[in-house]
Automatic annotation (TrEMBL):
Residue positions binding pyridoxal 5'-phosphate: 107-108, 135-138, 220, 223, 245, 276, 304
Protein name, entry field: Kynureninase
Cofactor(s) listed: pyridoxal 5'-phosphate
UniProt modified residues of type N6-(pyridoxal phosphate)lysine: 246
Enzyme Commission (EC) number: 3.7.1.3
Quaternary assembly: Homodimer.
Annotated source species: Winogradskyella arenosi
Reactions catalysed, as given in the entry: 3-hydroxy-L-kynurenine + H2O = 3-hydroxyanthranilate + L-alanine + H(+); L-kynurenine + H2O = anthranilate + L-alanine + H(+)
C-alpha cells in the first residue's frame, strides 16, 4: 500500500476508481451555515443518516396511524417479530450465527445484562479485568457490578495497562497478568476496538488466554461493529455488546446489539434477568405460563422493543448488507492507509499517530497526537469545516468511514490541518 501519492489529483482519481464512492450520495452530509458540505470524520461517535432511513421509519409511523395495536401482527413489517428482521444482517456484520445475536436495549444496559449471566464471582475468583483506559461507561458498569456482588471495586478491578511511555496494549502483558492473577479473575471485559487509540485487539488470542485460566471473556464492540471484521463466533468470546449509532449509522441513542456465543444458546440454567420477551414466543401471550426461556441471544430480551429505532437500524443494515463487509473493509484499509500516508508527510516533529500501524490492528480511526497543540486547534479545524473529535490532552480522533467518506475528504482534512499547524 505504499503507492499512495500526494496531491489532489491522486485523491480524485482514487474516488473515481472507488466502487463504493456512490454510497456517499446515500447519506445526508451535514453542511455549514453557507450550505457547504462539511468533512465529517466523526462516524466513530455518531454515524450519518442514510437518506433511506426516513422512509423506513415513516412506514412504521403510517402503520401505527392506520392500524393501531393491530400493527403488531398486520403492519407491513409486523412489530411482534420485528427484531427478527435485523438478525441475519446483524449476524453477518459481526461474524456470528443468527442464533447468537439480538438487537435490544442500550449498550451499557446490555453490558450489565451480560454480566448478570457471565460474571459469577466466588470468594476466590471474583475480579474483573479491563483495559486501563476503558471507556468510562464500561469502567463504571464493571465497578458497580463488583459492588453489587459485595466486593471492593478497587481491589476487584485488574487493569491491563500500556507500558510506561506507550499507548497500546500488548498481549504478552495480558499473558503475564493472567499467569499471576488468572485464578482470581472471573471475567475479562475489554473494549474490542479502543475508543481512544483505535487499537483493535486480538479477540481470539484474548479469549483463548482467558478461557485457559478459567475466566469468562466478553468484548465491548462499540467501536468495532460496522468498522472491523469482528468474527465474533470464531473468536470464541462468551459475549459481546455494541451500539448501532456509531459506525452502524442508526441514529442518536439507537439500540444496542448483543452477542452470546452458541455454546450458551441452550443453557437454561444460566442466571439471567428476564422479561416477557425472553419467554417462548408460542406461549408468550398466554401470560400465565411458567417461564420458558427462548434459546440463543433472544433469550436475553426483556421488553417489546422500540420499532421506530429498529426501523432506522434496518435501513442502515440494508446498506451494509448490500455492500458486504469484505468490500467495506478493503476500502477502509486503503482509505485509512492513505490518511496515514498524508499525515506522515506532515513530519514526525509535528504529529504522531497513536493508532497501530498494522492495518490488522485497527479500523478506520486514526488518533492523531499533535505536538504542542491544545483544543484551540480542534476548534479551528471545526471552523474550517472538518468535524473531528478532540480528546484531552492533545489527541484528534478522525474516522474516515468507507461508506460516506471520500479520498478527497481525507485530502482536504490534511490540507486544513497543515494550514493550521
Ligand atoms: C460509545 C460507547 C459507549 C456508550 O454507551 P451507551 O450505553 O450507548 O451510552 C460505551 N462503551 C464504549 C466502549 C463506547 O464506545
Amino acid at each position: 500500500m505504499s503507492d499512495y501519492k500526494l496531491g489532489l489529483d491522486y485523491a480524485k482519481a482514487q474516488d473515481n476508481l472507488d466502487e463504493l464512492s456512490a454510497y456517499k450520495q446515500q447519506f445526508h452530509i451535514p453542511k455549514d451555515a453557507n450550505g457547504k458540505a462539511l468533512i465529517y470524520l466523526c462516524g466513530n461517535s455518531l454515524g450519518l443518516q442514510p437518506k433511506s432511513t426516513k422512509a423506513y421509519i415513516n412506514q412504521e409511523l403510517e402503520d401505527w396511524a392506520n392500524l393501531g395495536v393491530e400493527g403488531h401482527t398486520d403492519a407491513k413489517n409486523p412489530w411482534l417479530p420485528y427484531h427478527e428482521f435485523l438478525t441475519e444482517a446483524t449476524a453477518k456484520l459481526v461474524g456470528a450465527k443468527p442464533i447468537e445475536v439480538v438487537t435490544m436495549n442500550s449498550l451499557t444496559a446490555n453490558l450489565h445484562f451480560m454480566m448478570a449471566s457471565f460474571y459469577k464471582p466466588t470468594k476466590e475468583r471474583y475480579k474483573i479485568l479491563i483495559e486501563s483506559d476503558a471507556f468510562p461507561s464500561d469502567k463504571y458498569a464493571v465497578e458497580s457490578q463488583l459492588r453489587h456482588h459485595g466486593f471492593n471495586d478497587k481491589d476487584g478491578l485488574i487493569l491491563w495497562s500500556p507500558r510506561e511511555g506507550e499507548e497500546l496494549l500488548r498481549n504478552e502483558d495480558l499473558e503475564a497478568i493472567l499467569k499471576e492473577h488468572g485464578s482470581e479473575i472471573a471475567l475479562i471485559m475489554v473494549g474490542g476496538v479502543n475508543y481512544y487509540t483505535g487499537q483493535f485487539l486480538d479477540f481470539k488470542r484474548i479469549t483463548m488466554l482467558g478461557h485457559q485460566h478459567g475466566c469468562k471473556v466478553g468484548f465491548d464492540c462499540a467501536h468495532g461493529a460496522g468498522n472491523v471484521d469482528l468474527d465474533l463466533h470464531n473468536s470464541g468470546a462468551d459475549f459481546a455488546v455494541w451500539c448501532t449509532y456509531k459506525y452502524m449509522n442508526s441514529g442518536p441513542g439507537s439500540l444496542s446489539g448483543c452477542f452470546v456465543h452458541e455454546r450458551h444458546a441452550y443453557n437454561k440454567d444460566l442466571n439471567r434477568f428476564t422479561g416477557w420477551w425472553s419467554h417462548n414466543k408460542d406461549t408468550r401471550f398466554n401470560m400465565r405460563h411458567e417461564f420458558d426461556v427462548l434459546p440463543g441471544a433472544e433469550g436475553w430480551q426483556l421488553s417489546n422493543p422500540p420499532i421506530l429505532s429498529m426501523a432506522a437500524i434496518r435501513a442502515s443494515l440494508d446498506i451494509f448488507n448490500e455492500v458486504g463487509l469484505e468490500k467495506l473493509i478493503k476500502k477502509s484499509k486503503k482509505l485509512t492507509g492513505y490518511f496515514e500516508f498524508l499525515l506522515k508527510d506532515l513530519g514526525e516533529d509535528t504529529i504522531r499517530i497513536i493508532t497501530p500501524e498494522n492495518p490488522e490492528e485497527r479500523g478506520c480511526q486514526l488518533s492523531i497526537q499533535v505536538l504542542n497543540a491544545d483544543k484551540a486547534l480542534h476548534d479551528k479545524l471545526t471552523e474550517a469545516g472538518v468535524i473531528s473529535d478532540w480528546r484531552e490532552p492533545d489527541v484528534i480522533r478522525c474516522a474516515p468511514t468507507p461508506l460516506y467518506n471520500s479520498y478527497e475528504d481525507v485530502y482536504n482534512m490534511v490540507e486544513q490541518l497543515k494550514a493550521l499547524l
